[in-house]
């Protein structure tokens, strides 16, 4: 296909730190989405930390018209001269300060865009970061907001956070009828800019909640510290550096939510976090991930005599808490000595953790029960698995629950991410289908073992759970249906955007 670089795409996908350069669930989801919408054309904006050379992990499908980049830590240099920089920085300074204190909004973003619009293609780091006027702006903001704390910390924080914002506003905006961002953050800012600049429909899909992920990272970051001891301060008027990071990223999410026509996420638990950061109920919608239902539903159950079998399907890494699964197997073996326990997934990502897991297996005398299979094709195993187990301490929406569920295999899982919703059903499930397994507490081998004993020894319960989860997957998580939902959304917004464009041309 000859790709016309000036052609307006049906959809512009805005991605931060993922596709097409980084493998993983979100990137795979994006690739599948583009391929599933083969009647539509796409442009992709990939937001990356810097302009280092990267090799794509995915080959772009034929319906992608182009790929452009935003480098949040590598602004274009801009003209050699900094004429007009002082007035521009003076104009945008108060609005950037609003973001630093968590009070920015769409009007703040619009004001910054208006101030740089006339010279956008001539501006860059020379004027906005490295000029005398930029220095004066940083000093002024520091004195107003952060005086008494480390100026060096503030200086580099300002350049990082505000430089990232400026990068999203200086980059070229691809021509499209619909803009679709797959996170908030800088991608969300870029999408909000698209809404302000074009007035066209803009959609957000959040897999994980960006602002919440940044909260966790920043709160636990050892390289960030509070600048002053405020333990006895009653009325704290200044913001410390850690707070600034938190407020800026939360504020970016709030501005993104305000600019969107539709805000989607994978499960109900995420919506609670979106509401907490200001997302309007009228914009919210759940669109879960889907799986190839027919592929897994057609797996035949083994009728050969065998021992009961369970499996943890995932990488052998600490976040999957494989040790809790192994210890649960040890407890289960005290009352059910004859069973097979598989650990299906790559072992090379964290060799030390893998060795520790193997040592626990041997220490508990489970070498004849527990098998590390490495990477496997699930189709070859699910027909002879009676239950799968997820002991993860963090998940979003683990597809393995759905894949096993389509094969009528129930799940025992910790109460993280969408696990409860997939196993027990959404609040709006009508009619209720019943549980498709059992939810257990985090890091609790005894509860996990107890749930396994119930599932493995009660055939009627196991069959009921298998039927419930299989029906739930067919009803709500079939990828064919999910692809249709996105197609219908795109067509609806395309129709609106094209009609609006035609009306503007006619007037």
Describe the structure.
The protein has 507 residues and is α/β, with parallel strands linked by helices. The protein folds into three domains: 9-71 and 175-209 and 241-286, Rossmann fold (3-Layer(aba) Sandwich), CATH 3.40.50.2000; 85-159, no CATH class; 293-477, Glycogen Phosphorylase B (Rossmann fold), CATH 3.40.50. 46% of the residues lie in helices and 13% in strands. The chain is built from 18 helices and 13 strands. A seven-stranded parallel beta sheet has the order 3-2-1-4-5-6-7. Helix 7 links the parallel strand 4 (176-181) and strand 5 (202-206). Helix 2 (85-100) packs antiparallel against helix 3 (106-117) and helix 6 packs across helix 7 (185-198). The longest helix has 28 residues, at 479-506. The chain is globular, with a radius of gyration of 26 Å. 42% of the residues are buried. Residues 226-237 have low confidence and may be disordered.
Helices and strands in order, then pairings?
Elements: E1 9-16, H1 25-36, E2 42-48, E3 64-71, H2 85-100, H3 106-117, H4 125-128, H5 132-145, H6 151-170, E4 176-181, H7 185-198, E5 202-206, H8 210-220, H9 241-259, E6 262-265, H10 268-276, E7 284-286, H11 293-297, E8 309-313, H12 322-333, E9 340-344, H13 351-363, E10 370-374, E11 387-390, H14 399-406, E12 411-414, H15 419-424, E13 437-440, H16 445-457, H17 459-476, H18 479-506
Parallel strand pairs: 1-2, 1-4, 2-3, 4-5, 5-6, 6-7, 8-9, 8-11, 9-10, 11-12, 12-13
């Amino acid at each position: 296909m000859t790709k016309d670089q000036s052609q307006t795409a049906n959809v512009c996908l805005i991605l931060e730190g993922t596709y097409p350069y980084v493998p993983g669930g979100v990137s795979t989801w994006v690739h599948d989405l583009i391929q599933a919408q083969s009647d539509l054309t796409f442009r992709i904006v990939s937001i990356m930390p810097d302009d280092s050379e990267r090799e794509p992990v995915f080959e772009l499908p034929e319906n992608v018209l182009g790929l452009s980049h935003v480098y949040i830590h590598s602004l274009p240099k801009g003209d050699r001269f900094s004429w007009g920089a002082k007035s521009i920085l003076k104009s945008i300074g108060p609005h950037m300060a609003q973001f630093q204190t968590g009070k920015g909004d769409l009007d703040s973003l619009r004001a910054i865009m208006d101030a740089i619009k006339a010279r956008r293609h001539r501006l860059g780091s020379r004027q906005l970061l490295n000029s005398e006027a930029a220095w004066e702006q940083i000093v002024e903001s520091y004195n107003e907001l952060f005086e008494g704390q480390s100026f060096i910390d503030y200086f580099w924080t300002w350049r990082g956070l505000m430089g990232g914002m400026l990068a999203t506003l200086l980059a070229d905006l691809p021509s499209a009828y619909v803009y679709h961002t797959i996170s908030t953050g800088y991608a969300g800012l870029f999408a909000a800019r698209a809404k302000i600049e074009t007035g066209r429909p803009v959609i957000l899909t959040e897999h994980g909640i960006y602002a919440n992920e940044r909260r966790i990272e920043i709160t636990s970051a050892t390289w960030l510290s509070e600048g002053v001891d405020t333990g006895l301060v009653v009325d704290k008027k200044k913001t410390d550096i850690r707070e600034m990071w938190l407020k800026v990223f939360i504020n970016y999410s709030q501005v993104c939510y305000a600019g969107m026509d539709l805000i989607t996420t994978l499960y109900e638990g995420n919506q609670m976090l979106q509401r907490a950061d200001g997302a309007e109920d009228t914009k919210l919608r759940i669109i879960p991930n889907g799986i190839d239902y027919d592929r897994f539903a057609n797996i035949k159950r083994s009728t050969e005599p065998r021992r009961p079998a369970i499996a943890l399907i995932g990488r052998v890494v600490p976040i999957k808490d494989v040790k809790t699964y192994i210890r649960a197997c040890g407890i289960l073996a005290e009352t059910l000595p004859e069973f097979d326990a598989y650990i299906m997934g790559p072992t090379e990502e964290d060799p030390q953790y893998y060795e520790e897991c193997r040592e626990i297996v041997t220490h508990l005398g489970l070498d004849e029960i527990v098998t590390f299979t490495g990477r496997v094709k699930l189709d070859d195993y699910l027909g002879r698995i009676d239950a799968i187990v997820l002991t993860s301490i963090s998940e979003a929406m683990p597809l393995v629950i759905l894949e096993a569920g389509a094969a009528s295999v129930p799940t025992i899982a910790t109460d993280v991410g969408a696990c409860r919703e997939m196993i027990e059903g959404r609040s709006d499930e009508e009619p209720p289908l019943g549980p498709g397994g059992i939810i257990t507490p985090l890091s609790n081998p005894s509860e996990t073992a107890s749930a396994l004993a119930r599932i493995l020894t009660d055939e009627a319960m196991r069959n009921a759970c298998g039927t419930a989860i299989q029906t739930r997957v067919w009803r709500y998580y079939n990828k064919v249906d999910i692809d249709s939902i996105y197609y219908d959304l795109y067509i609806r917004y395309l129709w609106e955007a094209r009609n609006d464009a035609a009306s503007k041309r006619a007037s």
